[in-house]
Amino acid sequence: MPLFPLPEMTFLPNTLIRLHIFEPRYVQLLKDAMEDRRIIAMPMVDPDSNSDHGEPRLIPTAGFGLIAACEPLPDERYAVALLGLGRLRIIEELPQEKLYRIAEAERLDREPLAKKEWLSIHHRICTLLSQLIIQNPKLTGLFSPLLSIDGSAELILNSLAHILLNSPQRRQEYLEESNLVAASALIEDALAMALLEGQIIEE
């Protein structure tokens, strides 16, 4: 798996992020990925890592995604849209034969929730979302699609994590959580805190 590490950045599944790629090593990564599976991983640089001697240490749990769009720009620059597909764990980095870093990795899948359990969690989340919408009606368009039970539990939770978890550390905690019940508790806590503090949420 080719690696595109960034500091202070956690890439969540089911989200779309836009990148501006211009460093030679990541231009090479992009071109190689486009000729292969169009998939790259985006691990977060460990904030406690010292990069004075070699490459900075990476947090092993990372999001990976598909290059959904790639637009060439002047001066060997590229505008890229990356669609999150899932989570992985870096097992070990491989010898650096390219300009960029490559690792052996394994996919991390969460166990699906039982229907009854998800209905209970979704009801609690919808109650909190409805209260947020009452508090700020401008958020109706943002949250209304997530009030439906039609989407999968993980899709709805990932979407809410993308909106509500506004620090890389909180997103990373959510990304690393393998249990969906525990992951949903992080979302419920974030919703409750947003209500309590009157937190401003980006539309």
What does this entry show, briefly?
With 203 residues, the chain is an alpha+beta fold. 37% of the residues lie in helices and 25% in strands.
Please describe what this structure looks like.
- With 203 residues, this protein is α+β, with helices and mostly antiparallel strands.
- It folds into 2 domains: 2-108, LON domain-like (Archaeosine Trna-guanine Transglycosylase, Chain: A, domain 4, Roll); 115-197.
- 37% of the residues lie in helices and 25% in strands.
- It has helices spanning 24-35, 115-135, 140-143, 153-164, 168-176, 180-197, and strands at residues 2-3, 16-21, 39-42, 61-73, 77-93, 101-108.
- Strands 1, 2, 3, 4, 5 and 6 form a 6-stranded antiparallel β-sheet that branches.
- The protein is elongated and about 50 Å long.
- 29% of the residues are buried.
How many β-strand runs?
A: 6
Number of helices: 6
N-to-C CA distance: 34 Å
Large-scale geometry: elongated
* CATH H level, superfamily name of the largest domain: LON domain-like
**Strand residue percentage:** 15-25%
Under CATH, the topology of the largest domain is which? Archaeosine Trna-guanine Transglycosylase, Chain: A, domain 4
Q: Helicity level, as a percent range?
A: 25-40%
Order of helices and strands: EEHEEEEHHHHH
Instruction: Please identify the top-level CATH class of the largest domain.
Output: Mainly Beta
Structural class: alpha+beta
State the oligomer: single chain
The largest pleated sheet is described as:
6 strands, antiparallel
Q: How many separate structural domains?
A: 2
User: What is the average of the pLDDT values?
Assistant: 91
